[in-house]
Structure formats: structure tokens, C-alpha cells
């Protein structure tokens, strides 16, 4: 398979400058590679609706299986994630669904297994799991997508209850399970999510894995520690996470030969002992030039790990913010979205929590996280239970928005008869503004038709290549739910390539028209987002250039081809590290030294 992107990569690696051709061009130093010619047309009228909801699409027959009807064991409650990946490099984003099982199926080995669906265009899909050589039958949880070996195609790391799995993309439409050779299977743990990043600054992607709790299907707690039944609002349910021992997280450092080494101890991850980690996000939260980690933790303080000298982590959640909320209480961090909320170069966090708690906005002020949920307007619907947390400019007005996927873990809650506390719940769409606050768009306007589901993981990506971000969500014990974005306004879509040809410069910053955007696809809830950056152009004017701050610190400017047409809606461009013009001015966000926090 020798696609359009592989062609560009080959030209770059061979340092050949090609003349512009229709749909793709190499414009020379300081310029930009145009991967697709701009399309022309009018914006689609939406009538105020943000998303068209679909629960059935041609060829997309995935159905989630995670637990029996009562969902008593904790293993059957938390659900699965989903990953977006252009695995065959045809320019269409494909979908990789994780799947769980039941305790009864686990005993017989009849697990449903994860599924890969190829995007055929026009909202049609094909199950290519077997054709692609994927044989993953584990009780799955999350998926992290990255080009970990920098060979120009996307690979997948799968977190499971039990040994994890690394699938290497062969570049011909198939994958090879390289878990054993790569050394990333790990002990038999319950791994929830993972994030790729270059933690030690050697130019190779490493891997952080957040682990949840010790779970033994032959020894499931049947009561609280004092002998009383496990209950939720007086209803007998399965026992909560506090009845289980949390597990230490894992850091794998990639070696020159493509294998990984477990470096958890030397990096000080004993500080994660006993924590119940859900979603891990790896990013430079303090802008000191290295990659830190934030982990949302279940019914306990969140973990915030600062990278010190590319050699070890130290925990700073209490002194640097993020461990507890504004009143000093821990919450149940489940889904996590990391986003440059104000476009000024500092990454904020948005976190979903359990029923009875608010969702949380940790605003980043020069590296310090402060709970600003109430001021932002993100503290609504405290009776709902949030999972996937997505941050993107869904309505393409130039301001980041928030999408929360909700759903209860206890089917028994329906016996309460409380309309505010139900098993199936509505997702919530919050629209951002110039002042940094959000306003909820009512479900009857946000989703057509509106509905209620028990959702878990979700991923945002342009599934129909019309320039806006759609959403695919996992419904617990049900079919997938697709939210087709109806905005279809002007967009600039940016793809990034590292100097070594890799397609995952995780943490790169992209500046366009005075605003910064960050490349962090491994986030949400046990999920992976579209690898492309979608930058809205609400003023209808195409910017002159794109500035990229690469993970290792170099800053380059890429000149955009001019477009005089007012009806140009979108174009996709590729910025390759080392081919732009070195920036003459420093980035506007200041660096913070390691000494700023104890």
C-alpha cells in the first residue's frame, strides 16, 4: 500500500522536491505540503441542530458486551473505549472498538473481541477485523493510537484486564501482534488507559499506562468492609472501587531497537501505588519543555506527575493543583480532556465525575491548576454520571466546546423512580465563548433526535471528511452511537510529521491567527481521537501561515498557499519538521523552571 501520505513521506526522506500537482504539493522551505485541494461550496444550514444522531449505519454492526443484566461485579461496569485510526492510510478515518465480556464468557473463552471497521466513505463501513489480522479476544478496556515506530503508519496499544496488547501496523492493511517482542504486555493487571509521548526526550515515543484495581473473579467483594450490603441510595448493588486495592501505573521507555523497557521504578512510579487510575493524559502542563502526566483517579485524589529532567516523576497534585477540587475534596475522575482552552499556550483540564459530584474544570495559570468549574459554567447536572470528556470546536466558531457522555453503572437505579437519576442519560454539549465560559445547548437542539443512552468511551474525528468533528461513542451493552456534526463551516486541517518521518509528534503546539492548539490524541475516556488538528476559520479569512512548536522545542513557520476565494471551505495541509522557516520570535507562553514547585 503506497498512499498519498506515504508518497509525501518518501519525498521528504529522500530530500526530493516535487513540483506541485493536483491535490498535493511540496512547496519548498518555509512553505507547506498541501494534501488535499480545497473544496468549494456553501455552508450547510443546520436549523440550530449541532449533531444528527445515528445508531445504525451500513456495515457498522458492532455491539458492546460488558456484563450481565445486573452488572454487579465492578469489571462489568466501567465499559470500553474507542479509537479513531486511518489504519490503511486512504484518507478516511477508520474505527477500532474495544469490547468487554461477561464473567460467564470469561470462563469459557467466548469473549466477543475488539473490532476494526474500515471507513468506505459516505457513512458506510466494513468489518475488517479478521482481514487485518487482529485476533484480540481479551476483556478490553482502552486503546491508544500512535506511530510508535515512526515508520509512517499508525499502530494501536490495547489496555485490558490481563495482559495488554501492542498491534504494529504492517503498512499493507494488516497488523502484527508484537506485544512479546516489544515487552509491553505487563503483568496481569487491570489497565484502563494509555498515552504515548516522548518522556525522556530522546526522540522516541514512550508509553504510560494507567492501571485500575486488583480484580479476582473468584473473590469478588459481596459487602462493605463492615459487613453491610453494598448500596447506592439504598439500593443493593455491586461493591464500589473502595473495596478494591488500586494498582501501580507503568512507564515503558522505548529503546533504539523498538523494544520497550519497564522503567516504572527508576521514574518513581511507586507514588502511584494504591491509586485507581482511569484516564491518563500526557502533556507539558507547566511549559518547561518536557512531558508531564495527569491521571483521573476513581474516588480518590487525582494524580499529577511532573517530569523532572526527563528522568523521573514527582507528584505535585496538592501543591500544583489538580488532585482535589476547590473545597479540598477528591472526586471520581473518569474522563479527562486536555485542551488549550484560551488559545494562549497553557493546557487546561476538564474532568467527568460520578453521580452526586460536579464535573470539573482545572484552569491552568502558569502551571498551577485551579478549580474554575463554577465560574466556567461546567458544574451543572450533578446527578448525572460522566464518562467520555471531549473538548473541541464542534460548532466551528473559533472557541473550544465540551461534549460529555453520560450513563449510570447501576441498572437498578431505575427502581428509584427519580427522573434526575436514571441508567440511560442524555449527553451534554457545552458551547464555548470568548470569555472562557460555556453555555449548554439543550439536548433537543444539540442532538437530533435527542436520546438517552448509557455511554462510556467516545472519540471525535471527521468521519465523513467534511471539515468538522463527528463523534463516535460506545454504548454500554448496546450498539455504537454516532453523532454526525452538521456545522460544516470553514476549517484548516493540519497534519504533522516529525523529522524522523513519524506521524505522532505528541504534544506539538500549532499556532494559527494568534491562537494555539495542541496535538494530544490519546485522551477522553480510554479512547484515542482523530490525529489531525481541526482549526476553525470563523472570520472566513485564510491565515497566511502556521507556526509549529515541535515536542523537542524547535519552532518553525510554514507559509500557507493564498486563497482568494470566499467560498473555499476547507483544506488539509501537512507540516513536516525541519522543512519550515525557523521562527524569529519566541513563543508567547513563558517557560517555568522545575524549581517553581517543591
Explain how this protein is built.
- The chain is globular, with a radius of gyration of 22 Å.
- It has five helices and 40 strands.
- It is mainly β.
- Mean pLDDT is 89; it is low at 1-31, 37-47 and 594-598.
- The protein starts with a helix and ends in a 16-residue tail after the last strand.
- 5% of the residues lie in helices and 34% in strands.
For the structure shown, list the relevant keywords:
disordered C terminus; 598 residues; five-stranded mixed β-sheet; disordered N terminus; globular; eight-stranded antiparallel β-sheet; mainly beta; 5 helices
Summarize the model shown:
With 598 residues, the chain is mainly β. 5% of the residues lie in helices and 34% in strands. The chain is built from five helices and 40 strands.
How are the elements arranged and paired?
Blueprint: H1 4-13, E1 33-40, E2 51-54, E3 82-85, E4 94-97, H2 103-108, E5 115-121, E6 124-127, E7 139-146, E8 155-162, E9 165-169, E10 175-177, H3 179-182, E11 189-197, E12 206-211, E13 231-232, E14 235-236, E15 250-254, E16 260-262, E17 277-283, E18 292-297, E19 303-308, E20 312-315, E21 336-339, E22 348-351, E23 360-365, E24 368-371, H4 373-376, E25 386-392, E26 401-406, E27 428-432, E28 438-441, H5 443-446, E29 447-448, E30 455-461, E31 470-475, E32 481-485, E33 491-497, E34 509-512, E35 515-518, E36 533-536, E37 545-549, E38 555-559, E39 568-576, E40 581-582
Parallel strand pairs: 2-29, 33-39
Antiparallel strand pairs: 1-39, 2-32, 3-4, 4-5, 5-6, 7-8, 8-9, 8-11, 9-10, 11-12, 12-15, 13-14, 15-16, 17-18, 18-19, 19-20, 21-22, 22-23, 23-24, 25-26, 26-27, 27-28, 30-31, 31-32, 33-36, 34-35, 34-37, 37-38, 38-40
